[in-house]
Design a protein that fits this description.
Layout: H1 8-14, H2 17-21, E1 36-42, E2 45-50, E3 62-66, E4 71-74, H3 80-91, E5 98-102, H4 108-111, H5 114-120, E6 125-129, H6 132-164, H7 175-194, E7 205-207, E8 210-215, E9 218-224, E10 234-238, E11 243-251, H8 263-275, E12 280-285, H9 293-314, H10 319-325, H11 329-336, H12 340-360
Parallel strand pairs: 4-5, 5-6, 6-7, 11-12
Antiparallel strand pairs: 1-2, 2-3, 3-4, 8-9, 9-10, 10-11
Helix pairs in contact: 3-5, 6-7, 8-9, 9-10, 9-12, 11-12
């Protein structure tokens, strides 16, 4: 999800007002809304996978389920422009109408393209968890405001890193990091222009545990397996194809364990996902997964994180001291390898917010 870095307060403390007043240099055009590859997964199922450089911001994969008479879309991307581009790609596949848009959860990078589909198909039904509307108006609205407030600071921080040739971690900037930072700058600038006018569309069909859509010969199951990436994650199962669309319960190359995640329950939810015995997983971000070892590794990560935070809580450690006590180096090596960028993303998108979420979540103490 697009959201402010946990260290935004630190950025505000170290970046001078003069630096913030200077405009960010436009070193590349904003990320193209149509910067994705459309891949056929199985007959009638296609995924639009974003192809910008990996960074601290990202937009979701978007999935088309083309049925006998209609189309079901799963997630719509991080802006109305993304939704419009995704719809244009769908139109190259089929002219059938979209009757349902399923949002796997309420994070902006999965829902902000909704308005493009509502404009094109006024009768389309939006499917989401029963708590999504509340989250959209509370946590989602707060996160969106934080993003807008933090954008000038963070874009300037990236710009300084590029000018000095130093990564945010203080190490020499690699070519991979340079490409990522340029893309992130453009993305934050685009968010500043698009977020204020975006329409937030709440579910018109809600799911507590299970919803079944019968579309000709195809059965589509919308399932709530438990808390994980958020407390409201839905998965979409196509039982005939042994395919599951996971939302951000699964994301690659780095798992997403954010401030609204529930690490203590994440592993059990992923175990339920595995119990569906899928042959193919379409994740919220990254390429299609056909080897479940990635999910098993993610289960080990969230369980190790939870146990170490639980041990720190038992000792009465503060959040700051808990961060120091938690050691997930084994998993950093497994997910990030030797990439300096992936190591930083692992810290940014999994460890830092995940440890905080586990520390504050009452279920960790159980």
């Amino acid at each position: 999800m697009f959201r402010a870095h946990p260290r935004v307060a630190a950025f505000l403390a170290v970046v001078s007002l003069g630096a913030l007043a200077r405009p960010v240099a436009q070193q590349q055009a904003p990320p193209a809304a149509d910067a994705f590859d459309v891949q056929k997964v199985v007959d009638g199922v296609f995924v639009a996978i974003r192809k910008e450089p990996l960074g601290l911001t990202r937009s979701s994969n978007c999935i088309f389920i083309v049925n006998d008479a209609d189309v079901v879309v799963v997630d719509t991307g991080a802006s109305p422009a993304f939704g419009t581009a995704t719809l244009a790609a769908l139109r190259k596949i089929t002219t059938k109408p979209v009757t349902h848009v399923i949002n796997t959860h309420w994070h902006d990078d999965h829902i902000l393209g909704n308005q493009a589909f509502r404009a094109a198909f006024p009768d389309v039904k939006f499917v989401g968890h029963a708590r999504n509307e509340q989250q959209l108006s509370t946590s989602g609205a707060a996160s969106r405001k934080q993003t807008l407030d933090a954008a000038p600071v963070i874009t300037r921080q990236f710009q300084v890193a590029l000018e000095q040739g130093k990564a945010l971690a203080g190490t020499p900037l690699t070519d991979e990091e340079r490409r990522s930072y340029l893309n992130d700058i453009a993305t934050w600038e685009r968010m500043r222009s698009e977020l204020p006018g975006v329409a937030i569309i709440a579910p018109t069909v809600t799911v507590d545990d299970k919803l079944v859509l019968t579309k000709g010969k195809r059965t589509i199951e919308v399932l709530y397996l438990g808390a994980g990436h958020t407390g409201e994650d839905l998965v979409v199962r196509l039982p005939q194809d042994k395919l599951v669309i996971t939302g951000d319960l699964v994301a690659s190359p780095i798992p997403l364990i954010g401030s609204s995640s529930h690490p203590a329950e994440f592993g059990a939810t992923l175990e339920k996902l595995m119990a569906l015995q899928p042959a193919i997983l379409v994740p919220g971000h990254g390429p299609v997964v056909k080897d479940l070892e990635f999910v098993r590794l993610q289960i080990r990560l969230v369980n190790a994180m939870t146990e170490q935070v639980r041990a720190a809580l038992a000792k009465g450690l503060s959040l700051e001291d808990t961060r120091k006590a938690v050691n997930l180096t084994e998993f950093e090596r497994a997910f990030a390898g030797d990439s300096a960028l992936l190591k930083y993303v692992f810290s940014f998108a999994a460890v830092n917010p995940g440890v905080r979420a586990a520390y504050l979540d009452p279920t960790t103490k159980r």
